[in-house]
Design brief:
By secondary structure, this protein is an alpha/beta fold. The chain has one domain: Rossmann fold (3-Layer(aba) Sandwich), CATH 3.40.50.720. It has eight helices and eight strands; from the N terminus they run βαβαβαβαβααβααββ. Helix 3 runs parallel beside helix 4 and helix 4 packs parallel to helix 6. The longest helix has 26 residues.
Length: 254
């Protein structure tokens, strides 16, 4: 899968960009020349991260952005519109895992007893918030000559793998998290279909099993490696895929 490696003049927004995979995605895009805006729920952490990047010579800014708060999403649109008048890359990176402390292969299936609050809070952060922000920012993305929308999903959102008893993921039944990522994948498919015939590409990606708060300490790759697929999807050329679900060079089953 080829990518475009010069992002000079491009503007990117990375939600959840003050730590983890998001932080390394900010770094990777900035290294390619993009002006990157960190969307951070913790405004102080976002400002500290942006300042560190600036000291390293990168064009990075930060805004307070809790994607579950509609007013924050509106403010993000206003900030980007007033300062840049467009958005080239949107990385919907922010998300939560509330079913348990982290993903592991030893998951107790609590589907029958999982509270409606955990379900609703998970979908608010992992699904509804992504739609709200993307819909608000889409007019700015339409002004880009090569808009890219990257939805951070998870291989755990693959219904094909979740339904297959022979899949190594079959036992990982974190219901709220998995279902929210499957729903996000559906959003990717539908939005990509609507935007066919435009320069905008919309894709879901699996970052890998990354050693983060969600991934846990048993994960097999670090955050730098975990950012690679996000950066790949953000830098797809004109003939790259849209409406796809992949990890690095590998297409994943829905």
């Amino acid at each position: 899968m080829t990518t475009t490696q010069d992002l000079n003049g491009k503007v990117a927004l990375v939600t959840g960009g003050a730590r983890g995979i998001g932080l390394e995605t900010v770094r990777g895009l900035a290294q390619l020349g993009a002006t990157v805006v960190i969307g951070a729920r913790d405004a102080q952490k976002g400002m500290e991260a942006a300042q560190q990047f600036k000291e390293e010579g990168f064009k990075v800014e930060s805004i307070k952005l809790d994607v579950t708060v509609h007013e924050d999403n509106v403010a993000a649109y206003q900030y980007l519109n007033e300062n840049y008048g467009k958005l080239d890359i949107l990385i919907n990176n922010a998300g939560v895992l509330l079913d348990q402390e982290s993903v592991s292969i030893e998951v107790i299936n609590r589907t029958s007893t999982l509270s409606s609050k955990v379900l609703r809070d998970t979908f608010d952060a992992n699904f509804f918030a992504q739609i709200d922000l993307t819909q608000l920012l889409l007019p700015l993305i339409r002004k880009s000559d090569a808009g890219r929308i990257v939805n951070l999903s998870s291989i755990l959102g693959s219904l094909s793998l979740q339904a297959n008893p022979d899949s190594p993921l079959y036992s990982v039944k974190t219901f709220a998290y998995n279902a929210s990522k499957a729903a996000l994948n559906a959003f990717t498919i539908h939005l990509a279909a609507e935007l066919r015939g435009t320069p905008i590409k919309v894709n879901s990606i699996h970052p890998g099993w990354v050693s983060t708060r969600i991934g846990g300490g048993a994960a097999d790759i670090d955050e730098v490696e975990g950012s690679r697929t996000s950066i790949m999807a953000a830098t797809l050329p004109e003939d790259g895929p849209t409406g796809s679900f992949f990890f690095l060079e590998n297409t994943l089953p829905w």
